[in-house]
Amino acid sequence: MSQKLNLKNDIMFKAFFGRKGNEKYLKEFLESLLKIHIEKIDIRSEVSLLKLDEKEKGGRLDLEAKLNGGLIVNIEMQLRNLENMEKRTMYYASKILSREVERGEKYERINPIIMVNILDYELFGFKEYVSKTEIVLKEHKDYEAIKGMQWYFIELPKFRASNPDMGDKVNQWLALIDSEDRGLLKMAEEKNKVIKEAKKEVEYLTGDEEVKRLAELREKWEMDRNSEIGQAQKEGEAKGKAEEKLEIAKNMLKRKFKIEDIVSITGLPKEEIEKLKKEI
User: Fold this and answer.
1) Alpha-carbon torsion 82, 64, 170, 128, what sign?
2) Is residue 223 part of a domain?
3) Continuous segment of H or E residues that includes residue 101
4) CA-to-CA distance for 156 and 176, rounded, in angstroms?
5) pLDDT tens digits, residue range 17-26?
6) pLDDT tens string 193-243
7) Same domain for 174 and 97
């Protein structure tokens, strides 16, 4: 299986778990994570892979499923830390909630929502790699005040480094999704025949030319976007330093420093400082 085209690529993730006939894989993964029994699972895709072309390659790709006729689970893969994960997932949860209300449901009949965020970076400063949030009362933390919305955060680097118990099904699925540690993946296959079948399906998808093209297109877009963000940050820092130098020069001029001394301290051209002196 290609390092590039594994389930951490969100196109691959959605193509695999959202593929008709693969419902059993998503069912077992979610049962192991959420610790619930799933009788029925309906996948509700927000983004069609078939419609994803070069103009749409930057769209947010997530996977949404309705469990047992009610509970809504939204799964998103995030490879790079953009420093906004908590706010991002809160925003998307509110959009899903708003959509449910718009369908004409009464408040008491709004479906509960679970947001699952799979991250290929560390978000929290503790060792646990699967974190679940609950909204509780400050004075009574054992009382879940709002039961209709929960978040799960899965940090894959922590999973790899934790020497996980491979008898636990959720760890078996994380080994497949992550695909970084071949030893862990081999143990997962040995302990769970469904994982072995799932791995073969992933390998089949990596050979599907359409899925492969879209997955590589998606990765290129991610790399380009991160490059643009990095360049914008550098430009912003450079602009901030230039403005800071100008402010220093203004203050020095007001305090009657010699132009030669201002040039030496700020590094600004003599002509620019003379022009600044005329302006003030």
Assistant:
1) positive
2) no
3) helix 85-102
4) 11
5) 988 889 999 9
6) 999 999 998 888 877 766 666 666 666 666 666 666 666 566 656 667 788
7) yes
Query: Do 275 and 194 share a domain, yes or no?
Result: no
Helices and strands: H and E segment counts in the chain: 10, 6
Which one, of 279, 213, 204, 9, lies nearest residue 118 by Cα? 9
Show the domain range for 53.
10-207
Q: Are residue 142 and residue 275 in the same domain, yes or no?
A: no
- Alpha carbon distance 77, 178 (integer Å): 11
Has residue 47 got a pLDDT over 60?
no
Please work out, in degrees rounded to the nearest 5, the angle formed at the alpha carbon of residue 57 by the alpha carbons of 205 and 17: 35
The answer, as to whether pTM is greater than 0.85, is no
β 113-119/144-155 pair status: parallel
Phi, psi of 142 (to 5 degrees): -90, 0
Residues 242 and 155 in one domain: no
